[in-house]
Amino acid sequence: MPTATWERLPAARRDAIVAAAEAEFAAKGFSRGSLNVIAREAGVAKGSLFQYFDDKLGLFAYLSELASLRIGAAMAKHSAPLPWADDFFGAFTAMLTAWVGHFRNHPADLALTAAVNLELDPDTRVAVREVVNRHYLRSLRRTIDHGVQVGALRADADLDACLALLLLVLSHLALAANMPGLDPVLGLDTDPDQAVERVVAVFRAAFGTPEVT
Amino acid sequence: MPTATWERLPAARRDAIVAAAEAEFAAKGFSRGSLNVIAREAGVAKGSLFQYFDDKLGLFAYLSELASLRIGAAMAKHSAPLPWADDFFGAFTAMLTAWVGHFRNHPADLALTAAVNLELDPDTRVAVREVVNRHYLRSLRRTIDHGVQVGALRADADLDACLALLLLVLSHLALAANMPGLDPVLGLDTDPDQAVERVVAVFRAAFGTPEVT
Amino acid sequence: MPTATWERLPAARRDAIVAAAEAEFAAKGFSRGSLNVIAREAGVAKGSLFQYFDDKLGLFAYLSELASLRIGAAMAKHSAPLPWADDFFGAFTAMLTAWVGHFRNHPADLALTAAVNLELDPDTRVAVREVVNRHYLRSLRRTIDHGVQVGALRADADLDACLALLLLVLSHLALAANMPGLDPVLGLDTDPDQAVERVVAVFRAAFGTPEVT
Amino acid sequence: MPTATWERLPAARRDAIVAAAEAEFAAKGFSRGSLNVIAREAGVAKGSLFQYFDDKLGLFAYLSELASLRIGAAMAKHSAPLPWADDFFGAFTAMLTAWVGHFRNHPADLALTAAVNLELDPDTRVAVREVVNRHYLRSLRRTIDHGVQVGALRADADLDACLALLLLVLSHLALAANMPGLDPVLGLDTDPDQAVERVVAVFRAAFGTPEVT
DNA sequence: GATGAATGAGGCTTCATTCAT
DNA sequence: CATGAATGAAGCCTCATTCAT
């Protein structure tokens, strides 16, 4: 989505723009985020932004993809050493905890995820979510398949429903654990670890194989 | 939130304003909805709006509360004749189907719910959601309690988690079933009834009492 | 084309805007004329212009119509006392001389006529010319009919061609007599009266009844 | 008007620039034509254009001269075989028909002529028209002289007026026959051949020698 | 001689809010 | 209490031109 010019830019300039844009969209969302502010904060002429991206949406989509790549990489790294085969739900819990933690430690990723999920304009939302969700879906589906293989998830469960709910819950966890006012029940913003455990327990009850007592 | 002046207004004038404002926010969302348009469509002077509400947000919050009252009332009516005692999950399914249908038939309610859930600006979102969620939580908690009493839900299940997930899922159902691009897996926008059944099945598996075969 | 608000405006304010807009469009034409400049010169907020006219084109079209009404009225006044019946071509010459003189004395009318005729953007040009030409065509056709009735113009001449050429020549006379660089032959900008006489002679030769010697 | 650098350029590079510039100005006109687009389409750096021409106007004026040379050459070729001596007005009609046809078949020439004739900015217009008109005037004057010699035009007619009107009519024919909205009477855009005939008839009546019946 | 990134003024338009009437 | 004209900052985007490489 960025232009060829963008690729040829000095890294410092690119970084300044990305940082400014992330901060602005994080604070205001896409529709209300201002290119004026971004250019000013980045120390760049207003017109320059349009040499790097076709338009406002182009810049935002680029940031969103950056963030989802970053998130995907972080999750992959967290996931690798986990004992998925031996303790699937334990690993899953650790994974979700890491997920929540990632967003706490990377406000830009949180903000962009929020901006994507909370965008009201339908066209914009569809355009951006499509790109972003693709990553998550692929990864989640792999995790679910794995859970079935190791016998943690029932093969006859409604795994698509599981996937859909996971996608929904993941978004919610990321946001609700780090933004006030989104979760009035579980207390995600005060004790996220416990909240994660309770959510995993629900998934285990719904889709897991019966536990041997 | 409305001023004292608003209460003293002829009902016809109030209704015209509410109708115009709902239509506008439904079409454009909160941020992009225009008070100019609302005033014109309502046949009211622009300045008058500011005699009834502190500002744009005040008007919007008022509409949101109206909508949630309306939705609550509709749900209560739907709920009353359902066989909660005899077939809790059947009643629950019918309830969710009615819920989804309500938003399909009341675009204004859908739009306002969307605007509330998708608003990025933290202050706005918190202010509005707080009011709205209160209604839903009370009602949902009653439903859950009832499910326990009739033996459909396990008393030892994590009922708060159930509540939190319900709240999340309800919002999602209302929006995803009626706006494209929000649910890439379950196909809520093409076959909502089936999607509802699958979601209920998940809740039954997670929180329901074991079925006697 | 102006909004209702415009009609209710104090005359002084309206006049200031009209004067500023005419001056700007006169100097720069429609496409390059700047609403910024107009608002500043008129001592009016930029946004106010959009309370009076839908957009830039709306303002321009309004000015064009004003000008063509003004021109039409002036011509009607000039025309009335002329001896059309006794000396059609003499009256016609006097008419054209008055026409040229009008634009010399009313630079705003000249400028708007120029702006209309010289606008490059096809949609704009069509939109505006349609309004303006209607006036001229009706009036010119009446004059031609009259010329036939009094026996000055041959009834079997190609009167539509006469009309088309008249329209073309009138525009040209108005502009070329008052803007340098448009007429490199007849010297319209230096001795317009003589040029007018020569043009009328051409029309007489082409469409007039043979003179009795 | 081009710089010395331009003359030294490989022909291929010059041709690419000319082609791109003609296409762009043809599509957008002078004021709205974009050097960005021209440079991109020509496969040339934006900055290079400024090494070949002083500025945007310089490039445009150069193209205009090119076009008028091209048009002049085409007309000369069309003119040569025509029976000017035997049937002056027949040849003249054929000539004008060819003229109109040329612009239909060469949109770039049409567009440049339009851009020249419709440019409002006085300095620009004068600068460009001067160059262009010189060609036409010389050629038209020769045609008129010839008409007199072969006895088709009256020697005592106002031949300068004829010349001035011809110049005016030629421009009009070229544009009005190929752009909508310029000729509301003769129907030049729907049946140009017939319109041409009618115009020639007017000139014959005004300046031609009486026909022997 | 060629490049193309950077500029920054300027383009039109929208809109919540104020305040004199 | 209603009105609606006025505001002016802010919105996104375009573009001819410059200049360091």
How would you describe the overall organization of this protein?
Four copies of one chain form a homotetramer. By secondary structure, chain A is an all-alpha fold. In chain A, 74% of the residues lie in helices and 0% in strands. Chain A has ten helices and no strands. Chain A has helices at residues 4-7, 11-32, 35-42, 46-52, 56-79, 88-105, 107-118, 122-149, 159-176, 192-207. Chain A is elongated, with a radius of gyration of 19 Å. The mean pLDDT of chain A is 86. Chain A binds a DNA duplex (21 and 21 nucleotides) through residues 5, 8-9, 34-36, 44-51, 55-56.
Can you summarize this structure?
Four copies of one chain form a homotetramer. Chain A is an all-alpha fold and 213 residues long. Chain A is built from ten helices and no strands.
Instruction: Count interface residues per chain for the largest interface.
Output: A-B, 47 and 46 residues
Q: Regarding quaternary structure, how should these chains be classified? A: homotetramer
Number of helices of chain A: 10
The averaged pLDDT of chain A comes out at 86
Alpha carbon gyration radius of chain A = 19 Å
| Helical percentage of chain A | over 70%
Q: Which class of secondary structure composition applies to the elements of chain A?
A: mainly alpha
Strand and helix order of chain A:
HHHHHHHHHH
Give start-end ranges of low-pLDDT stretches of chain A: none
What characteristic shape of chain A results from the CA principal axes?
Answer: elongated
Major sheet details of chain A: none
Residues in β-strands, percent of chain A: under 5%
Give the end-to-end Cα distance of chain A, rounded to a whole number of Å.
54 Å
Count of distinct strands of chain A: 0
